[in-house]
């Protein structure tokens, strides 16, 4: 009886030990699963980027913004390790292309090459199909630039003084090409109208390239175009440059006066190029893109643009782009109102 009692007691104790061992193993297994998953047994999120990245240019191919975007794409794809392509979506003063990115997935694979118009459109339009602040995440201010005043070489206009005299002699008859309402080429011309006290008529196009094509063909009289879109044509003698719109002379065009020097004191207008992603794009993706842009603007491709076209390379932080664009919005709001420029 005593032996039986001892046997039963030992058996219960053995069974209890087995249960405890089983429970310990179950707890250990639960603890190990997350660790194993973290080591890659469970599906892991792919590192950005793992597919093609697209930069939307809200202008036609061949213009200044397109050139900057293609140079950016070429340089950052080396750092990102994935192809970066350009998609041109011109029209409606950059709104079509801009909206495309605003409504894209916030995953870093659809980006916007924004320009001057991004800061001006809120003042131009009663209603936009996107909010330029809430629907976008800043990536980097790539570069700042000035515009250049150009005419057809066959034109009798050889200087800013000539342009002013011709415009005053023929109010409303001279026309200047723009690459969309509210773009730098447009408002630089409107600023010239206001400060020189003349009246030239703006003719909008879907990009710099078609506008320049008509300037070369004699259909329009003058353009306040981006340097990137006109520099090679000026160098080839296909366009005549009259002045630069910057506050100071450019080292890229030291022979050209500023518009202010040439007859319109105080005149200055600037272009810029900034990269945006859709709002809610993950912060690590924004940081990765910003890092790639910072390297890109130091590349040979951009150094050549800087030397030949007077670009001021930036490659700054997202916060810097936000601050700069805010200042640009404030700066141009008064001109838009005073000139009664509005698109319904």
From TrEMBL:
Pfam families on file: TctC
Highest taxon listed in the record's lineage: Bacteria
InterPro entries associated with the record: BUG, Bug_dom1
Keywords from the named record: Membrane, Transmembrane, Transmembrane helix
Chain ranges passing through the membrane: 22-42
Family: Belongs to the UPF0065 (bug) family.
Protein's UniProt name: Tripartite tricarboxylate transporter substrate binding protein
Organism: Bradyrhizobium cosmicum
Lineage: Bacteria, Pseudomonadati, Pseudomonadota, Alphaproteobacteria, Hyphomicrobiales
């Amino acid at each position: 009886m005593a032996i039986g009692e001892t046997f039963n007691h030992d058996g219960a104790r053995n069974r209890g030990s087995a249960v405890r061992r089983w429970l310990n193993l179950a707890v250990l297994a639960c603890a190990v699963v997350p660790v194993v998953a973290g080591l890659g047994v469970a599906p892991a999120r792919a590192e950005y980027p793992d597919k093609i990245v697209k930069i939307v240019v809200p202008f036609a191919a061949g213009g200044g913004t397109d050139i900057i975007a293609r140079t950016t794409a070429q340089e950052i794809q080396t750092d990102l390790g994935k192809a970066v392509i350009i998609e041109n979506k011109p029209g409606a003063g950059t709104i079509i292309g801009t909206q495309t990115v605003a409504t894209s997935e916030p995953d870093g694979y659809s980006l916007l090459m924004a320009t001057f118009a991004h800061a001006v459109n809120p003042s131009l339009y009663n209603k936009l199909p996107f909010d330029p602040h809430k629907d976008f995440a800043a990536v980097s201010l790539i570069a700042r630039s000035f515009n250049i005043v150009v005419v057809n070489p066959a034109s009798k206009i050889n200087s800013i003084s000539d342009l002013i005299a011709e415009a005053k002699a023929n109010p409303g008859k001279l026309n200047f090409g723009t690459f969309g309402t509210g773009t730098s080429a447009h408002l630089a011309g409107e600023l010239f109208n206001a400060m020189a006290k003349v009246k030239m008529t703006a003719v909008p196009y879907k990009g710099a390239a078609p506008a320049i094509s008509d300037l070369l063909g004699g259909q329009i009289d003058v353009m306040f175009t981006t340097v990137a879109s006109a520099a090679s044509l000026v160098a080839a003698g296909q366009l005549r440059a009259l002045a630069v719109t910057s506050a100071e002379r450019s080292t890229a065009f030291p022979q050209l006066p500023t518009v202010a020097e040439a007859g319109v004191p105080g005149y200055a207008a600037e272009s810029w190029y900034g990269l945006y992603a859709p709002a809610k794009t993950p912060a690590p993706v924004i940081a990765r893109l910003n890092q790639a842009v910072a390297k890109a603007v130091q590349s040979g491709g951009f150094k050549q643009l800087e030397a030949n076209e007077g670009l001021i390379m930036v490659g700054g932080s997202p916060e810097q782009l936000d601050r700069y664009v805010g200042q640009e919005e404030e700066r141009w709001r008064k001109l838009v109102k005073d000139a009664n420029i509005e698109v319904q």
